[in-house]
Amino acid sequence: MLGPIGLGQLALLLVLAGALSGCDASDLDKPSAAARPGDRVAARVTEHTDGDTLWLSGIGKVRLIGVDTPEVYGEVECFGREASAFVKRLLPLGARVRYSLDTDERDRYGRALAYVYTDDGRWLNLLLVERGYAQPLTIPPNDRRAVGRSGPAERLWVSKLTTFSEARNATR
Q1: How many separate domains does the chain show?
Q2: Tens digit of each residue's pLDDT (9 = 90 or more) over 45-101
């Protein structure tokens, strides 16, 4: 049985343990509270699907907003496998990322619609366009980051032909 001093020390330890548990990196694996559009929420990559779809802890299957990569399922399109491989190299399983939602949080297939950022702050959606693995695809109302005609991805895409657009046009 603990005496008065032992109980006080135990209570202090419990309070400290509770306070410190809020800083635990394992929180990345727990579902996040409902994020508001624009909030950047920490997560980890748990699975890869293709170049514009991946799985994140706490939110599940995520479709990248504002970009379209070639398909790798069904009718496989040119550079689809390369786009998928790029995302796998950049964000291996377990990689820390941040994501933010826009107006519509999910699409008709139940996928979360998000902008994804690497651990060092780079915007994955734009990187895919810059590297030629995707083309811009803006579907309102999810256009807060202006990936469409007046946004950075569209300006880049219009200024030069991307690998994806060249390949798509060559196969038609």
Answers
A1: 1
A2: 999 999 999 999 999 999 999 999 999 998 899 999 999 999 999 999 999 999 999
C-beta of residue 71 within 8 angstroms of C-beta of residue 35: no
At 6 the pLDDT is 56
Q: Closest Cα to residue 65, out of 110, 109, 100, 28? A: 100
Tell me, yes or no, whether 2 lies in a domain: no
What is the amino acid identity at position 56?
L
22, part of any domain: no
Instruction: Tell me if 135 sits within 8 A of 80, measured CB to CB.
Output: no
> Tens of pLDDT along 3-30?
555 545 544 444 444 444 443 444 444 4
- Longest CA–CA span in the chain (Å) reads 83
Which amino acids are annotated catalytic? 63, 71, 111
CATH number of the domain encompassing residue 135:
2.40.50.90
Asked if the structure places residue 92 within a domain, the reply is yes
Please name every residue paired with 114 in a beta bridge, in sequence order, or none if there are none: 64, 101
Q: Where are the beta strands (DSSP E) in 71-131?
A: 96-106, 112-118
Structure-block tokens of residue 148: 């469409």
Domain that holds residue 143: 29-170
In a domain, 107, yes or no: yes
